[in-house]
Amino acid sequence: NAGDLEAAAVLWRQLVSEWPDESEFLHGLADALAGLGQYDEALSAYERTLELAPRDAWAVLGTANCLIALGRPADARVQIERAYVEGVEQSADGSGSLARRLCRLA
Q1: Helix, strand, coil distribution of the chain in percent, nearest 5
Q2: What residues contact 4, with CB distance under 8 A and at least 6 apart?
Q3: Roughly how many angstroms between the first and final C-alpha of the chain, as a whole number?
Q4: Residue 8: enclosing H or E segment and its boundaries?
Q5: How far is it, in rounded angstroms, from Cα 55 to Cα 71?
Q6: pLDDT below 70 — which residues of the chain?
Q7: Cα torsion for 105, 37, 41, 64, to the nearest 10°?
Q8: Across-strand partners of 6?
């Protein structure tokens, strides 16, 4: 529901404002913004998340999803390939998601 996502974005913004170097808060903000279709802002938040937590597989996927939504699939592919080569931390689900995303971009 868009209202829930908007409320979540407000909360995440407040948390990021108070604790700008907490990757979890930036990631939450990025997810909310992406859900609202605000891909440019979400991309910035995901990129900052990856500066702070470069091995966050879900932030890599969020970044790739935003790049695809912004019409930049080649950039998304580069992002995922680099993360795959660098061995981002992945749960079983994260690993499969990266592999599936990479296959769809190939």
Answers
A1: 80, 0, 20
A2: none
A3: 32
A4: helix 2-18
A5: 25
A6: 1, 86-106
A7: -10
A8: none
Whole-model pTM? 0.81
Phi, psi angle pair for 56, to nearest 5°:
-85, 100
Report the alpha-carbon distance of residue 42 to residue 74 in Å, rounded: 18
DSSP state of 89: B
Do you know the residue count of the chain?
Answer: 106
Could you tell me if 42 and 33 are in contact, meaning their C-beta atoms sit under 8 angstroms apart? yes
Q: Show the tokens assigned to 105.
A: 């971009």
**Token pair for residue 42?**
């979400």
* CA dihedral for 14, 15, 19, 25, sign (positive or negative): negative
